[in-house]
From TrEMBL:
Protein name: phenylalanine 4-monooxygenase
InterPro entries: ArAA_hydroxylase (IPR001273), ArAA_hydroxylase_Fe/CU_BS (IPR018301), ArAA_hydroxylase_sf (IPR036951), Aro-AA_hydroxylase_C_sf (IPR036329), Aromatic-AA_hydroxylase_C (IPR019774)
Location of region: Disordered: 1-34
Highest taxon of the lineage: Eukaryota
Alphabetic keyword roster: Iron, Metal-binding, Monooxygenase, Oxidoreductase
Listed PANTHER family: AROMATIC AMINO ACID HYDROXYLASE (PTHR11473), PHENYLALANINE-4-HYDROXYLASE (PTHR11473:SF24)
Domain Biopterin-dependent aromatic amino acid hydroxylase family profile positions: 49-348
Top EC class of this enzyme: oxidoreductase
Amino acids binding Fe cation: H224, H229, E269
Record family assignment: Belongs to the biopterin-dependent aromatic amino acid hydroxylase family.
Co-factor requirement: Fe(2+)
Source organism: Apatococcus fuscideae
GO MF terms, alphabetically ordered: iron ion binding; phenylalanine 4-monooxygenase activity
């Protein structure tokens, strides 16, 4: 691993972005098979270690001083997955993997807002893991991913033999939507993570899941971030919706943060969208998991319309693929609804 910083060339996003804003239609591409395991956040997800019971006791109107800038958003409160991996983590018995993760996490902790994200020299097994995830999941994108994803995906020039650098990805996003990536050492505290969205900043891990199980990770890793989140963050309408969630979090009390976390979970992580009578995925937890992509199209899950004002069920991330998804009619519609919810929070 090197701390050397390079400035990457900047592929243009103007053509696809312009096409998108001109309401042009879909695209299509690839195909095929394989792999299983779902992406799940195991212990903490975004909601962290807050149980529903303890939450209700703590739900008083807390006096929240919202961050005035990204520099005031704490990127250091990491929930789990630090030096001590859980016993069921694939890397639990791999000392070299743990040291590698800690080196990368240390680099993320040292990052200053406004500075380029340090590049990593990924190891051969990390590149192979990334290549496997890219190869397998991308087989289903043409038939399962939403048009916005298919539209922006080629901008990033993903290749199986090269793990993309966060700085290069962030540079493309800045040109397309004004969003950026900030490296983070692990699963961030939900309030801080959601606050980052208000400043058009996505906190991203930089380490790679354990090579022994390339199609499974119990936590977000760079494969999930790059394949699930990054292409969607190049779409302006999607970003508008996500920005609403971030803005709503700035003045939210703990109970509202909990609800916003569920909104985030059922949209940004596991959201579906209706396209020409078909169900397509835009949630990162679906787009970065071959098994989840298959599951969403099966007869198994329940699919409901999304309403940010509705009581949302407990997030389920420990019992296999999602049993419930929420579906949007459009990102514009979702942004409008989330905007109304945001207004309601600010008036409370
Ligand atoms: Fe995610």
């Amino acid at each position: 691993m090197k701390g050397a910083v390079k400035h990457n060339s900047r592929p243009s996003c103007s053509r696809p972005a312009d096409q998108h804003s001109a309401s042009q239609a879909p695209r299509a591409q690839q195909h095929q098979l394989l792999s299983r395991k779902k992406f799940s956040f195991e212990k903490s997800v975004v909601p962290g270690a807050i149980s529903t019971a303890s939450l209700s006791e703590r739900v008083q109107q807390v006096s929240v001083t919202p961050p005035a800038s990204l520099r005031e958003v704490d990127s250091g409160k990491i929930l789990g997955f630090g030096a001590d991996l859980a016993e069921d983590h694939p890397g639990f018995r791999d000392g070299a993997y743990k040291r590698r993760r800690m080196d990368i996490a240390t680099l993320a902790r040292s990052h200053e807002v406004g500075e380029p994200i340090p590049e990593l020299d990924y190891l051969p097994e990390e590149i192979a893991t990334w290549g496997t995830v890219l190869r397998e999941t991308s087989q289903l994108y043409p038939t399962h991913a939403c048009q916005e994803f298919l539209h922006t995906f080629p901008l990033f020039d993903f290749r199986e033999d090269r793990v993309p650098q966060l700085e290069a990805m962030s540079s493309i996003l800045r040109q397309c939507t004004g969003w950026q990536i900030r490296p983070v050492a692990g699963l961030l505290h939900p309030r801080d993570f959601l606050n980052g969205l208000a400043f058009k900043t996505f906190h991203s891990t930089q380490y790679v899941r354990h090579h022994s199980r390339p199609m499974y990770t119990p936590e977000p890793d760079v494969c999930h971030e790059l394949l699930g989140h990054v292409p969607m963050l190049a779409d302006p309408r999607y970003c508008e919706m996500v920005h609403k969630i971030g803005l709503a979090s700035l003045h939210a009390d703990n109970k509202q943060i909990w609800h916003l976390t569920k909104i985030y979970w059922y949209t940004v992580e596991f959201g579906l969208i209706r396209e020409h009578g078909e169900i397509r995925a835009f949630g990162a937890g679906v787009l970065s998991s071959y098994g989840e992509l298959e599951n969403m199209r099966s007869e198994k899950p329940q699919i409901l319309g999304f309403d940010p004002f509705a009581v949302l069920p407990k997030m389920d991330y420990k019992s296999g693929y999602q049993k419930l998804y929420y579906i949007l009619d459009s990102f514009d519609d979702a942004a409008t609804k989330l905007g109304a919810y945001c207004d309601k929070l600010q008036q409370a």
